[in-house]
Amino acid sequence: MFNFFFKMFSNDMGIDLGTASVLVYIEGRDVVLREPSVVVMEKDTGKILAIGNEAKKMIGKVPQHVEAIRPLRNGVIADFSATEKMIRYFIRKVHDRKTLIHPRVVIGVPSAITEVEKRAVRESVEQAGAREVHLIEEPMAAAIGAGIPVEDPEGNMIVDVGGGTTEIAVVSLGGMVVKKSLPIAGDKMDDAIVQYFRKKHNLNVGENTAEDVKFRIGSVYPVEKEDIIDVKGRDSGGLPRIIKVSSEEIREALEDRANEMVEAIKEVLEQTPPELAADIVDHGILLSGGGSLIRGLPELLSKRTELPVMRADDPLHCVVRGTGIVLRTLKKANKNRLDYKLLD
Hints:
There is one protein chain. The chain is an alpha+beta fold. The protein has three domains: about 1-140 and about 320-335, ATPase, nucleotide binding domain (Nucleotidyltransferase, domain 5, 2-Layer Sandwich), CATH 3.30.420; about 155-185 and about 260-315, Nucleotidyltransferase, domain 5, CATH 3.30.420; about 185-255, ATPase, substrate binding domain, subdomain 4 (Actin, Chain A, domain 4, Alpha-Beta Complex), CATH 3.90.640. Helices cover about 40% and strands about 25% of the residues. It has eleven helices and 18 strands. It has helices at about 1-10, 55, 80-95, 115-125, 140-145, 185-200, 205-215, 245-270, 275-285, 295-305, 320-330; strands at about 15, 20-25, 30-35, 40, 50, 65-70, 70-75, 75, 105-110, 130-135, 155-160, 165-170, 175-180, 205, 230-235, 240-245, 285-290, 310. It has a five-stranded mixed beta sheet with strand order 3-2-1-9-10, with helices on both faces. Strand 17 (about 285-290), helix 10 and strand 18 (about 310) form a beta-alpha-beta unit. Helix 3 packs across helix 4 (about 115-125), helix 5 (about 140-145) crosses helix 11 (about 320-330) and helix 6 (about 185-200) runs antiparallel to helix 8.
């Protein structure tokens, strides 16, 4: 009777704790939240003023006594206290019965996470109200969420391009045979655009502007329609200024970051056992994550690796949906008997 009551009133959840965004999956309700991983607080008191969507709007606009921070860097916790408060806020925001039962949580983490970082993530989620926390590496979660049959004896390559890291893995028989976590992803692309404007046009722009430009006209491979847009910023003299920027220029700004991504993928392919490499020739490379939405990425990777490359049907939600599938599986089986490996 107690077990029935417990299940009825427990909103167990899967979380994609990303550098750029936090996504939350609730069993039976699918993905219920996607908000930026941003916290705005007072510097002296640490008082939280805004989290998520409202906080991101404030980046670059706060007064001196206030700071807008991203508590996660390169996919791991940089500010424990702010991360805990952010997770607690999101859990309470989506949890229907906030005070009754604490949720079980499956959370995606980078494949290169250290023991110290794993402990920080687990403790942060527990302090935020979870009763039980399971960690799964993001490329495995992305592969599961994208519908790859990870338990089969065949090789599949997943490239999950997030905000802080690009997670590359070859999966087979429920595990990752080869993996690499590259600290080059969406945020570094934004930084590259900021630096390009500063050096080429003597214009200072904020990270929100750089991200907007990236998604509006950014590409890493020649596209059919090249665009020109107005970009607003501040010149070296401190005055507001508007310039016209072409998509070719943004491609030039992103070239080095794209090349680093290509080389990392090639490195993983070189380390892949021949039998699994043969499978990848047949199956190709699957892209997931918000960073994979940059125009021309599949075409660039396909040309440089000579393999078929395609995006997942819903790249933004692969990791979080993968945590949701793991969550459902955990309820049906002992975690030591799952078809894929969780982190201890």
